[in-house]
Amino acid sequence: MSQVHHATARALLRRLAVEQAECRIPSLTAAIVRDGSLAWFGGRGRVDGAAPTAATQYRIGSITKSMVAVMVMRLREEGLLDLNDPLERHVPGTRLGHLTVAQLLSHTAGLTAEPPTAWWERTPGIPAAELLDRVGAEELKHRPGRRFHYSNLGFGVLGELVARLRGTSWLKALQEEVLDPLGMRDTTPRPRAPHATGYAVHPWADVLLTEPEHDADAMAPAGQMWSTPHDLARWAAFLGGEAGGVLPAAVLAEMREPAIVDDGDTWTSGYGLGLQLSRARGRRLAGHTGSMPGFLATVWCDPGERVGVLFMANTTSGMSGALLNDLLDILDEHEPRLPEEWQPVAADPALLALTGLWHWGPKPYTLRLLPERGLSLEPVGGAGRASRFVPQDDGTWLGLDGYYAGETLRVAADHLDLNTFVFTREPYDPAAPVPGGVSEWHA
After folding, report:
1. Is the model's pLDDT at 276 over the cut of 60?
2. How many whole angstroms separate alpha carbon 257 and alpha carbon 172?
3. Which residues fall within 8 angstroms of residue 269, CB to CB, at 6 or more apart?
4. What angle do CA 255, 256, 262 make, to 5 degrees?
5. Confidence band (pLDDT; 50, 70, 90) for 253?
6. Which residues fall within 8 angstroms of residue 35, CB to CB, at 6 or more apart?
């Protein structure tokens, strides 16, 4: 699948046009990524008298955080840090030294939302050393790990962490290690032509106020970057698994796992490792929102459907909040994805012999053979503990997900040993080592 059909494009453009007109946005762009490629782009409004294009720059605000998080994960993959490391190990001498890297990435460190400076989004920034020196006990608002509390300050600190471990600026490291390899050469720390000007729209009149734009310096990792719809589409594809050698796909999947939820009663929004998470209309999305004076942007990916969606606008506020899910709904309605064709695969006879019915005590489970020599253990009827397993060099199997994630499955001649739980072909097989010797079934 590549470009959307004409009727789909028209429906998508109409939804974009309604958003721009009814929400009074000076200019608005949106794009859909499908199977790793740009499938649709639309633009409305004017930038310097012309319609915006896929090459028009907008400020992307906190989407910058997801880029910084990728750099942190690269450092982890190289063995230069562990996510459980306290900050003191890499950025010594601060009052935040007890906070872990993972807590900072997931906004669970308990840090204040904003830095102890003037309104950082609208004033020139200060150097990292001065910012860290200003941070005191009053910037710790919650017990670390207790709850989600979004912190711009936390990502300013993570930018300094990257700089210390790389021996250069976080921005230079990001450019060389992430943006350039992904072909995102129009993603920059300051605007370049053609770019949209940031505006505030008067709430009661159709007039504009130009918003300020400054170098945020130490706070730049929280929201400095500018990008284009074309580059942000590449970022959506990357977050969805088109890793391009920057990170292993498994690490991107780890970043998309929920570390904390923002609304525990309903779990519609949460945070992973540097990525926002959303559950809406049956979809589970990962990406990030962004806002800075005069600009709003959001990028989401749905890895299961191999689709991404984004918008970029030059307005301080006023978006409906429904645009991106509406665009995905239109795509699903007009061009629903076809399931992958089923094809038979070669099977190892020894593994094939393991498949079928097993019992955990009286509860029946099915063991299925998956492609690439994987196994899936699922309760009959679907209710209960289910996990997938992959083979290890020592002959054991490692749990990938579910209750048994990270646990070891051992296969014996007449039973399965899953982290001390014994599965047998018959319910409570008396020949099994555990519990073994049970009495006969009776009325």
Report:
1. yes
2. 28
3. 261, 262, 263, 276, 277, 278, 279
4. 105
5. very high
6. 1, 2, 306
Query: Rounded to 5, what percent of the chain is helix, strand, coil?
Result: 25, 25, 45
Each residue's pLDDT tens digit, 179-236: 999 999 999 999 999 999 999 999 999 999 999 999 999 999 999 999 999 999 999 9
CATH class of 1-343: alpha beta
Question: pLDDT, tens digit, for every residue of 50-95?
Answer: 999 999 999 999 999 999 999 999 999 999 999 999 999 999 999 9
C-alpha count within 13 angstroms, C-beta hemisphere, residue 10:
3
Q: For the CA atoms of 378, 384, 385, 390, what is the dihedral angle to 10 degrees?
A: 10
Give the total residue count for the chain. Answer: 443
What CA–CA distance (Å, rounded) separates 254 from 381? 29
pTM of the shown model: 0.92
Please report, for the chain, the start and end positions of each structural domain, with discontinuous segments joined by +. Answer: 1-343, 349-424
Burial of 254 (0-12, 13-18, 19+ CB in 10 A): middle
Q: Which residues contact 273 (CB under 8 A, 6 or more apart)?
A: 69, 72, 73, 83, 102, 105, 106, 254, 255, 257, 259
